[in-house]
Design a protein that fits this description.
Length: 215
């Protein structure tokens, strides 16, 4: 967790909150939504992100209590993760007619870290597709690849897989927002009490949101 925040960042969050009311969101969901918007200056992510509080709380514990390894699909994602080191094997990977370099990097990383890792994918849809096919048992998958080919489809597949995940519905995404989502979990203190058990609900609208709370 961070104790010092630059004044420019403080002002950025203040302005964000004057344009979008995130106060009804549970703490970790709010942290993820706000940091993704802060990193992209795109308020529409409040309508686009899909995550739930219990999944985020479990991932937070994995990161802070179990020191779960972090894997990034590309070096730009790894560079954006500022509080912990992240493994990225894309430099060692090779493409074949049946496998992209990004997908091979995921295979190589899994051979090294095994189950229980936090995976941060912000570039290649094929990396996310490969991770879904592995029996990786992740603590969390932050699946925010970007592009017109395969990005939205791979994120839909991630949600359908049942893996613990943060994703978004549209084609947008990218290294900055993927790293931001992970940084939110690294920077934010875990609430001392678990949220009460309630059915999954859709939370606040700006004017519409797909950020979800599992509580």
């Amino acid at each position: 967790m961070r104790t010092t925040v630059h004044p420019i960042e403080q002002e950025s969050f203040r302005r964000l909150r004057t344009r979008l009311d995130t106060s009804p969101l549970p703490p970790l969901t709010r942290a993820v939504v706000e940091r993704v918007i802060h990193s992209s200056a795109d308020l529409a992510y409040a309508q686009d992100l899909v995550c739930d509080e219990r999944t985020l709380a479990a991932a937070h514990r994995a990161l802070h209590e179990a020191a779960a390894p972090i894997v990034a699909d590309v070096e730009m994602v790894a560079a954006g993760i500022t509080a912990r080191s992240a493994l990225c094997r894309v430099r060692d990977a090779k493409s074949t007619p049946d496998l992209t370099r990004s997908a091979h990097a995921i295979r190589l990383a899994y051979e090294e870290v095994g189950p229980g890792a936090v995976w941060v994918i912000g570039c290649a849809p094929t990396a996310l597709e490969e991770l879904i096919t592995l029996d990786a048992a992740p603590a969390l998958v932050i699946g925010l690849p970007v592009g017109f080919v395969g990005a939205a489809e791979s994120k839909a597949a991630l949600r359908e897989s049942g893996l613990p995940a943060v994703s978004n519905i549209s084609e947008k995404g990218g290294s900055a927002v993927a790293a931001a989502a992970l940084n939110a979990l690294l920077y934010t203190a875990l609430p001392t009490e678990a949220p009460p058990t309630r059915p999954r609900t859709t939370v606040p609208r700006a004017p519409r949101t797909t950020v979800e709370e599992t509580a």
